[in-house]
Amino acid sequence: MRGLVRETSLTAGDLIQPMFVRTGAELREPISSLPGISRLSIAELVEEAGQVKAAGVPAVLLFGSTSEKDEAGSGAFDDEGVVQMAVRAIKETHPEMVVVTDVCLCGYTSHGHCGFLRDGEVDNDVTVELLSKVAISHAEAGADIVAPSDMMDGRVGSIRYQLDEEGHPGVAILSYAAKYQSAFYGPFREAADSAPSSGDRSGYQLDPANSDEAVREALLDLEEGADAVMVKPAGYYLDVVERIKKETGAPVAAYQVSGEYSMLKAAAANGWIDERAAVLESLVSMRRAGADFIVTYYAREAAGWLSSGT
Ligand code: PBG
Fold it and tell me: Rounded CA gap, 275 and 298, in Å?
């Protein structure tokens, strides 16, 4: 009877699994602050993507991890770069898998910032040009969706224009429109080795105290051609998810980030919470707030719990 009147559904089909890919062969390098998640070499990634798909999760979000970094983050738009090769490999083996790529420079710059630095400050417009090159190289490799996570102004419009010009009108843009300057990205920065070597990201990421600004960012990105907009982190920003969904009517994604995952894992490992119940509650709350789909490191595990119905 409770099922008949339930207002919100949560299925494996609503989830996206983030994955880290690195260069090198036969490697599976655990990330200590993200229990259960590893940096994978391409063959391992392809195999694990197959397991994600088999669990009912339709999409993966790829992040590259490399030790080859420079000032401009040029590894991010190398046609033979790790993400580009990974996209081709996944598409070859699992053509029906939706492949989303993170478009940013921070994992590839020597200074760890999400853009090109001029006098110690990120130069927005130069960065937008570089990001557009990254998006094109991902599209050429076969990505279905590119997801710019840098928070520069005007990057969605530039990426959309250049994708169309280069013959990729069907590649969609999932914009990290409301990405906050959050303390919950810590474990991710270990995974991608992308912590800024000086300063922080407050020049380009949103102030956690603001939500009008998040709505304005989402509206701008949609006007520039974004197909869906993302709120990140998710759990502490459900009001923002709800506002953006109501005020734009566009597809909205919520990203349960690395720190949110690690906290649940740590509490569960200590026996302080019931992991399965707590995770499914956190995810259904995101759907209740209005998220159409959810990026979560728990995707594959949650899919298993959902299908066993226990
Ligand atoms: C890159 C990027 C970050 C995350 C996704 N893309 C980190 C950051 O802004 O430092 C965070 C993801 C997570 O914590 O799971 N710009």
Answer: 11
